Amino acid sequence: MTDIHTIKSYDDELDQLRAILSEMAGLAEMQLANAVTALMARDIKLAEKVIASDKKIDFLEQRAEEKAIEVIARRAPLADDLRELVATIKISNALERIGDYSKNIAKRTTVLVNTLPIRQISVLPEMAQEAQRMITDVLDAFIQRDSTRAVNVWARMSALICFMIACSANC
């Protein structure tokens, strides 16, 4: 009975980490969407909301890292479990960076509001939406351990980068 309880509590700890990642991903997606909307609409209030909301993502990253390290220290996981825990730390760091980038877009928005109108980049909202979809899809691939879906996101990312390079060359 102890083994079942131990396994159940271990699974619960992993589920808690997955829940933190899911919450972070949702916040990162929302931050990105709001930052781009604020930029395109020159909405200072929304930009300020994005800047203030970054603290929540920072907190969740710290919580995910601490929880993953605690599980590693207490459970001494091997193979797949250890890789999942290390990946969790890396993913939470990447989601936190997305929040930081969104905050930086919002900070620039507050400065751009007081400048002359700039030529709108019509592809920016579409690129942001694709980035949001990729965040969702790659996290789903991680949680479901679906390598085909993860490779598909990687291919989409490569195509998006090529598109961005082509756009910057033509601007």
TrEMBL record:
Can you tell which superkingdom this protein's organism belongs to? Bacteria
A GO term (biological process) for this protein? negative regulation of phosphate metabolic process
What InterPro entries does the entry give? PhoU (IPR028366), PhoU-like_sf (IPR038078), PhoU_dom (IPR026022)
Which Pfam family, giving just one, matches this sequence? PhoU
PhoU domain location is: 21-109
Record-linked NCBIfam families: phoU_full
What family classification does the UniProt entry report for this protein? Belongs to the PhoU family.
What this protein is called in its record is PhoU domain-containing protein
What organism, scientifically named, is this protein from? Iodidimonas gelatinilytica
